[in-house]
Amino acid sequence: MRKLLFSLGSPFARAVRIVLAELDLEYDKQILKTALPIDELASMTPTLQWPTFWDGDLILWESTTIIEYLLSTYDLPEGDGPILTAANFRPEFEWQDRLALSTIQTFGTAVTTISQMTWTGVTVGTNAHLDKSVKKLEYILNWLENQLADANSGFQGDCLSVHDIFLASHVRFIPARPIGIDLQLADYPKINALLDRLDERESFKAVPIWFWEPSVIDYEPDGTPIYK
pTM of whole model > 0.70? Predict the structure, then answer.
């Protein structure tokens, strides 16, 4: 039995869930709406993070590892539009692809760190580390913009890659969190076009990121926040 432990807002978990949707795989959803006790979480993953994925007796954590397992284990279904790549990295462009993915994940880590710190009262504009992290986002987007061949391509050409999925998950996380960041996406026309295309893909529409801030305690079935 497949099972995924995740929170609705995590961009890393959203990427895994999009791949599960692309592969048309059923799985039990264990949704975290409040923090688990540390000992309970540690019994599932030593990183104390999610998503965590079970496939029978196999337990995996770290989103890129989970996706790599899914792509190497399950066949891709036939479908319309750009097909999902069968691996995280193309053999002929392995180091280029690895560098791009690690850079995208650095972007995601910076965004989620800003988000977590914001809820503790440490915000952009009041903390030098967070201000540097915001500048990091800008430099990363500039670099990634130059990695795309044109406004009609993703990071692996005509295919849907994990790079595309993770970048979209991380970038679209930001408007769903009042954390004081405006990415000025119009300045990155190739990235902006890629994200707009992905927003219309069925797997992305099936796995939205819902708005959250500390007073949100739950959600209606359509994603409407429920406040304290």
Answer: yes
